[in-house]
Structures are given as structure tokens and as C-alpha cells.
């Protein structure tokens, strides 16, 4: 099994495995595996078999080890349900064992379109087995990840995809994304290729092991990655309805005239902070946003822009950032590192949280200071003003009641839609580096 190279090498490989699959897809990055703990291998020069590129269509940052999975989920089939942002003619999946304590071996992995949105039953004729270079089984070391070979599948935009995983063995703690807002399923035994969902039961709104889905497309302007906290994670959106602000943004990019044809990748983790990793009793809040730029953003295929929505939890969670300059410095560092990788960087102002139990006048002053710098200091290539989109004009420290989920901090579906509307779509692909308020 080969090792996947970094983001810049995704466009170099194309035709070798296409011939083996007998489909007009371009295959990238060696033999399809990405093991983060291994050394990289040089990418062979090949001639693309088809015009197009690999682009991420869905993603979720691993947020920790799932509680209660000390021995893993051996002898069960995991069926993840995810929503695409753009479509294509082929699929690859990324699996992660980042928070595992020992290697995990999957002996059977499949992808399929569902017969009904959100459900575990697969549509007849769409089930495909996933391979990994030299076989249908793959072993991922503790701390590692893997990228599959290409699978020929006509994947529509704004469609659900079922990704089923089976391991027969005890695996140790399961790497998962904690707040999926999407029902996912488990079944006894190996039912990865079963069309029927009868054997699958709802097993929590979390995604297990699956961290990315990529599509091969001939019509793409790249991908925008949203790096954020619970507001990007969308934890107060309607479960199963795909109404996070990133979902609304993806719809705008698909539907509005002259919009760039871009995928949207959600890398939000609830409780995530810009400057600090999750506290020992809150490891599920993930590593700091500064470090997640390198682990969760830069390797995404096709990424050309990133929206940074972080900073509120640095004010709210202990130990708190008591100086706005600390947050501004962190945002500036993240922006500079993103630009160094050729990305366009959009910065989001800190949304109002005056109705939240943790709010104080002192925190409000810090929030306003950070937002002033985001708007005027030229940190970002463009500014997405979530504060202006969400606050009550009569009481700017409060979220507008029509947008409030009820806790004073997190928006409801209407609020998430307002956040998506705050993004000027032309700035996602604009190469003018002067900061501008949207």
C-alpha cells in the first residue's frame, strides 16, 4: 500500500488505476492510501485518462475517541450517512484512526446511494465495494488515515451517500465526529453490502472513522473549507435536515447565477478554540484551530479558500483569553499560514452571545475589540460579518430573537441561513488581497 502525498500532489496522478477500474476517472496520489504517520513516496508522472480533478465534497474533523468504545465495534457494520456538496463521476473515501490506540482493520467497505434521504437502506444498483490498492481490506495504524481507490459512481450534488465499514476484530477506541446532526447506524455482523436497512438500528448522531468523501469532477472551481466551532458544526440545526450554514452556502454555490462551482467542506468542532486544545475533561473539543489548519484543512483536495470562524470559545471557556490582542494575533498567524499554502482566507467576525449564561460586559468588550480588528486591520482577504448578520440592531450584544436557537449563543436554521447569506460568493475565488467587509 502506497502513501498519499500532500495537497499539491493530488493533481499529478491520474490514469494508472483508471485503466484497472475500466472507467474514465483520474486517479491521484499513488495507490490510494494516506497514512499520516508514514514517510511520503514520490508520485509517478502519468498522463490523465480523463479531464477533471479530485475535489472534496464532504468532510468532518475527527473530534476524539468515542466514549464507551474501549474495545471498539468489532463484529458490527457501521453505516455512515453523509451529504455531498458537489457531484461527480467517481468517489474516494478517507478513513481515520487518529484517536485509536491500536491498528484497525476493515475487511469490507462499501459506498451506495440511499433509497430515502437519511435512511440506511441502499438504492438497488448503486452498491459498490471499496478497494485499497492491493486488496479489499485495509489496516490503519493508530494515529493514521487512509484514502481509498476510486469507485465508479455517479454521485449527484446535494445527495446522501452511505459509507459502510466492517471490522471483525476488537479495535480499541473509535475515532469519531461527536456532533453530526445526522442519524447514523450499526448492524450485527458484516452487512456492508446489504441493500436493506432492516438490520441497521440508529446508533447515535455521530460519524465513525469516516472523515472525507472526494469526487472526480470535470467542472470545479475548487473547494472552500470552513474551519470553525459549534456554529460551523451546526449543532442546533434541525437533525437530519442539512441546515448548517455550510449547507446553505453549498446550495447558494450550486444555484445562484455566476456563482463559482465550489464544494463546501465543514471542519467545525463544537467547543473548538483558536488558541488552545480541548481541556483534559473536554478533549472532544478538539485540537486548537491553529493546529487544525495543518491536520484538517491543507490536505483537502481542491481546497482554494478557507473561512475561519473561531474565537468565541477562547472568550467563553476556561482558561479564557483576557486580551483581544491574543485572539487577533492567532487569527493573523492562521491567515498567514493559509496564504503561504496558496489559499484565499476569509475571516468571520465573532457572533453575538449576549443571551448566553456565560456572557459578561467584559467579554462583550473583548468581542467588539476583536471584531474591529477583523473588519479593519487587513488580516484577511475578505471578511464575513456574522456579527452584523445575526445581532439585534436594538441590542447589538444579543442575537436577533428570530435567529436564536434559545441559548443566546447558537443560531437556529434561520440564523444559519442568514450566516450563509453573509458570504459574498465572489470573494471565494477573488485574488484581490485587500480586506473588505461583506
TrEMBL record:
CDD domains: XynE_like. InterPro entries: GDSL_Rv0518-like, SGNH_hydro, SGNH_hydro_sf. SUPFAM superfamilies: SGNH hydrolase (SSF52266). The keyword DNA-binding does not apply. Gene3D superfamilies: SGNH hydrolase (3.40.50.1110). It comes from the Bacteria. GO terms for molecular function: hydrolase activity. Residues 226-418 form the SGNH hydrolase-type esterase domain. Transmembrane segments: none annotated. Keywords: Hydrolase. This is SGNH/GDSL hydrolase family protein. The lineage of its organism: Bacteria, Bacillati, Actinomycetota, Actinomycetes, Kitasatosporales.
